[in-house]
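Suppose a colleague, Dr. K., hands you the sequence of a protein chain of 338 amino acids and asks what its three-dimensional shape might be. Before reaching for any lab equipment, you can write down a predicted structure in C-alpha cell form. Begin with the sequence itself:
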Amino acid sequence: MNVRRRHISAVALTAVAALGFGTLTACSSDGAAAGDTGSFDVVASFYPMAFLAERIGGEHVHVTSLTQPGQEPHDLEISARQTAQLEEADAALYLKGLQPSVDEAIGQSPIATKIDAAELTTLEEHGTEAGHDEEHGDEHGTEAGHADEHGDEHAHEDEHGHDHEGGDPHIWLDPVRYAEVAEGVGKAFQKADPDHAADYRKNTAALVKDLKALDEKFRTGLANRTTNVFVTTHAAFGYLAERYGLTEEAISGLDPDTEPSGARVKELQKIAKEDGVTTVFYETLVSDKTAKTLAGDTGLRTDVLDPVEGITDHSRGEDYFQVMEANLTALRTALGAR
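The predicted structure, expressed as C-alpha cells, is then:
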C-alpha cells in the first residue's frame, strides 16, 4: 500500500490513476487492472482491508485498493470506471458501514466472493460527541470506552449521512478483532482459490500471530499509567479503548468531518482538567485545526494518534504494524505510562 516501497513505472502509475483506483500492492507487477492479472484478483475498499489481503494472499493475489493514499476513506465516492473494474475482480474485501458508495457498488456487482469484514467479528456502538455521559464528574473514570446511552441516533447516522447502523466500524484498531477478521478472510480465500489454500492458511496463521504479539505490546505498554482518558478528534478508537481499559473522549463523532458543538468543547475542557489529560490527538488524514484550537484553549499539547485508514508519506511507519506501534508510543506518553 505504501507507494514509497514499490518499484512501479511512472507510466503504470499514470494508467492506474486514469482508472480512478487507489494504490497497487507489492503483488502487482505492471499496473494491470483487476481481472487481467492471471492472479486471484482482490479489490479492497481501503488500506486495512488491502493490508489483510496482501498479507494473507502473498504472491498469489493481485490487490487493488479503491481508496488512494491520503484520501479520507469515509468520503470515497466510487466512479463508474471503478464500478466496471470492480466487476472484473475475483473477490471484494470491504467493511460494510464505513463507505456507503463501496457498499452499494459491491452489493450490485456480480462478484462471486464478497467478504464483509463486519461479519467476521462483533461490532459495537461507541459514543459520539453528542453522547457523553453528562454525569461525567462521578462516572467518567469507568473502564473502557463506554458506549454512550443518549447518543444513539448519532451512532446510527451522522450529519453527513454516513450510515453506522451496524455499529462502530473501526474494528482494525483492536488487534484482537482484526485477527478475527484475518482468520475469516483467510478462510474465504481458501474457499475461493482452493489451489493455494495451504499458503493462505499458513499466511493467515503468521498474521494472526503477529497481531497477538501486537496486542500483548499494548497490554504491557499501557499497564502502568496515570490516567485512563485520552482525547481524539473523532471517535475512531472505541475498540482500542475498550480492549485496554481506556476512555476515549472524541471532539467529533464517528465521522471525522463533524464539527463539535460549543457545549462539547467546554465539556472536554472540563474533562481535561479533572482527568489529568495532557494531550489532544489528531490524525494524519484530517485537519488538525480543531485539535490545536482545543489544546491551545486548555494549555495542552497535541500529537498524532493515527486511525491507520491509509499510509502516506506523513504516516509514522510504512505499514499497519509500524503505525500501530507509533500509536502505542504516543499513548504511553499521553497517559503517563511507565
